[in-house]
Specification:
Number of strands: 38
Radius of gyration: 48 Å
CATH superfamily of the domain at 13-232: PPM-type phosphatase domain
Number of helices: 12
Shape: elongated
Largest sheet: 5 strands, antiparallel
CATH architecture of the domain at 13-232: 4-Layer Sandwich
CATH class of the domain at 13-232: Alpha Beta
Structural class: alpha+beta
Length: about 750
């Protein structure tokens, strides 16, 4: 049987462009331009579309032609060779632009130097390649997040040189429903990134462009904005060729003959009529011209509900009748069973008993004569108990057997009374004995009687006290321990964690484009495929680990500042070139797009390295504000960099501190072990191993949920996969998961 081929085709993206060019002073128009250039011939289709914004802030006459000159050079070189790859064509075009600007500088035209703001990019299929000079920006809106994908591409001002106008090219993957905004820096004079994001989410595509055009035109003297809507490309409809009608000979015998229907045609027509009738019965009549539906009254759902109601009511009545019948039958059977019990012949038993038993009545009278106290007791007991026995007998036995039963019980009762009277002490004898005693004997007798009464009472009381103390101790011992995090907010108690891997020396759990990997001292384990790859000896026991989703690579940094990349596709490790300052202490590492970030806690700086052939290019000092990293425990990056110490998380953007607002307070103080950021929602996840919990925060650092389980206390690493709604935690010997509510 032939295997079915998997459809691995990537959905193509169709880019739609909207230009917003604001220039209230016409004399300034040569200094500002927007570029959107599609291929002019079919040979260049693979190169995609060349786009960008160009601005020169130097308004001298010598700089008036710089923008158009740059655009013409870049366009000409980019589309000059159709067989080159898009990124190679862009790099070649930028190199040509640098050479052209260098020639201008040689002739003394340097007024534009340091005042050129350009962002040029290429969109081909699902890929984006871009380069930056100056302050122009490229903002990518994806889902509910906005990212400045051009951040850091432009060279530092200290490195200004015509040949270094365009230094780096960054590449990334575009997705359907993304929105790309390429703009000059003036847009940030009236909007923040958050306001741009909110406006994009609030308005439709067309209204968003209209909103930007109105706002920029009203508030700014000049601005250039290119909005790119990235939608799914619709597949062309396959149009089947119409069958050519057979040529009709008007002079033939068949020219005016009627078309005969075959048996198959008649069957299909009958089937269509039946389907129409069924549809008519269900919904009424549908007008084929207007599409209006006319529903017949009394047909369909209402009638069905009425029938269902009647049917349910009838069934309920039948059920009640059955239950009443069962109850009545049970009652009659019970009464009949008790009343018709076959008892033995009590008369015979009574006559036999009389022959062998003594005359208890005479004995009782003798006892009564000896002491009136016994008589009173016997009489009282006789009256009370006998009455109770008679009442009980009447309830149990039927009228037929009642007299015999009463007689038998009276006989047994008389024996009991006789024995009771023999046991009771004689008060008359006690009185006579007391008279015969002297005072000393009476005292001893009284003390003895009191001791007989008091000592047992004292013992009973002592036992009760001991029992109550034991009960209190037992209750204290058995009292359940106070619930962990009982007073905390939004606690989700996980009874058992799902274990997905067990091993040794696990250093970290990572998420690479949705695939989860466990890193040990000597191996990288693909948890989904259950496949392990040994780490080369020169890179074993890495001290820092990170991923680069755009290149689908894992990076391992050793204690000797050597860095290696691992590709899960080829299962190969490669040594990467990187220059780390000799006095640096790398405390954390992360990546975003094609950049890698190293946090140097000794020099309180974050270094950013661009991806280059064979490893990474020259570093730049990314941090512009002063910040102390001595107590840093972890770092996580999306469009922002989040730096955590044990108590709080700081948010940095473009090298500056954006906010230092505290995490929402909770009854049990948070102690941060590790952090992770959600790739879709922007949520922040905190591993608090000391309190055995994982805390989920929203973008405003408010607590959404706190997942608690005692096993979390041993966790050392944290990763999140929001697409599967799963939190991954790892300890030294296992990887376990928690489902996100």
């Amino acid at each position: 049987m032939a295997k079915k081929k998997l459809d691995n085709k990537i959905a193509l993206i169709k880019a739609e462009f909207e230009n917003i060019l604001v220039c209230n002073d016409r004399q300034m128009s040569p200094f500002l331009e927007i570029l959107t250039q599609a291929p002019e011939n079919i040979d260049n289709q693979s190169l995609g579309t060349l786009i960008g914004v160009f601005e020169v802030t130097d308004t001298s006459k010598d700089s008036s032609y710089i923008v158009n000159y740059l655009i013409s050079v870049i366009k000409k070189e980019y589309f000059s060779k159709s067989k080159r790859a898009p990124i190679e064509s862009l790099e070649s075009a930028l190199h040509k632009a640098n050479l052209a600007l260098s020639k201008l500088a040689e002739h003394g035209n340097i007024g534009w130097l340091g005042k050129l703001n350009v962002l040029v990019a290429v969109i081909e299929k699902n890929n984006l390649h871009l380069s930056q000079a100056g302050t122009a920006s490229a903002l990518l809106l994806r889902s509910k997040t906005i990212t400045d994908v051009s951040d850091g591409l432009a060279p530092e001002k200290s490195e200004l040189h015509p040949l270094k106008t365009f230094m780096s090219v960054s590449s990334g993957r575009l997705e359907i429903n993304d929105k790309l905004i390429i703009a000059t820096d003036s847009i940030f004079d009236i909007f923040s990134l958050e306001e741009i994001k909110k406006s994009s989410l609030r308005f439709s595509d067309k209204k968003f462009v209209q909103f930007l055009r109105t706002a920029l035109g009203s508030e700014l003297e000049k601005a250039a904005v290119l909005v790119v809507e990235l939608n799914a490309q619709k597949e062309a409809l396959k149009i089947e060729p119409k069958k050519q009608p057979e040529e009709l000979n008007v002079f033939s015998n068949n020219a005016f003959s009627k078309t005969k229907k075959t048996a198959n045609d008649r069957a299909k027509e009958f089937d269509r009529e039946i389907q129409k009738e069924i549809q008519y019965e269900k919904t009424g009549f549908v007008d084929e011209k207007t599409g209006h539906i006319y529903i017949k009254e009394g047909v369909g759902t209402a009638m069905q509900e009425e029938n269902n109601t009647n049917y349910t009511q009838k069934n309920a009545n039948k059920s009640i009748d059955k239950l009443l019948g069962i109850a009545t039958t049970t009652k009659d059977l019970s009464i009949g069973l008790v009343k018709n019990i076959h008892f033995p012949n009590f008369e015979k038993i009574k006559s036999k008993t009389r022959k062998i038993q003594p005359d208890y009545q005479s004995l009782i009278e003798t006892v009564r004569a000896q002491t009136s106290a016994r008589a009173k007791v016997a009489t009282s007991l006789s009256t009370i108990l006998l009455a109770k026995i008679v009442e009980l007998t009447k309830l149990i036995f039927s009228a037929k057997n009642r007299a015999i039963a009463i007689s038998l019980f009276q006989s047994i009762y008389r024996k009991f009374i006789f024995l009771l009277c023999l046991i009771l002490p004689s008060l008359a004898k006690i009185k006579n004995n007391l008279h015969k005693m002297n005072s000393k004997q009476k005292l001893y007798a009284t003390l003895t009687i009191l001791s007989i009464i008091i000592v047992p009472l004292f013992i009973i009381k002592l036992q009760n006290n001991l029992a109550s103390k034991k009960a209190v101790e037992l209750a204290t011992t058995n009292q359940p321990a106070p619930l962990a995090l009982e007073q905390d907010k939004n606690i989700v108690r996980i009874e058992t964690l799902n274990s997905i891997y067990s091993g040794k020396d696990i250093l970290k759990i990572i998420n690479l484009n949705g695939a989860m990997f466990a890193i040990t001292n000597a191996e990288i384990i693909d948890l989904e495929k259950n496949k392990s790859t040994s780490i080369p000896s020169e890179f074993t026991s890495p001290v820092q680990i990170t991923t680069m989703n755009d290149l689908n690579l894992v990076f391992l940094l050793t204690a000797s500042n050597k860095i290696a990349s691992f590709s899960p596709i080829s299962s190969e490790f490669k040594d990467n070139q990187i220059t780390i300052p000799t006095d640096a202490t790398v405390k954390a590492i992360g990546s975003y797009l094609t950049y890698i970030y190293l946090l140097d806690s000794k020099n309180n700086q974050i270094y950013r390295y661009p991806r280059a052939e064979g490893g990474f290019g020259e570093k730049t000092s990314w941090l512009k504000d002063s910040f102390a990293f001595a107590d840093t425990v972890d770092l996580s990056i999306n469009e922002n960099i989040f730096i955590a110490n044990q108590k709080n998380i700081a948010k940095l953007f473009r090298g500056k501190i954006q906010e230092t607002s505290a995490i929402e307070e909770t009854a049990t103080p948070i102690k941060i072990t590790k952090i992770a950021t959600g790739e879709q929602s922007g949520a922040i996840f905190i591993l608090d191993a000391q309190n055995a919990r994982v805390i989920q925060l929203d973008a405003e650092k408010k607590i959404v949920a706190q997942y608690y389980n005692p096993e979390i206390a041993s966790a050392t690493s944290l990763a999140v996969n929001e697409s599967t709604k799963t939190i991954f935690i790892s300890s030294q010997d296992s990887v376990k998961t928690i489902s996100i509510n």
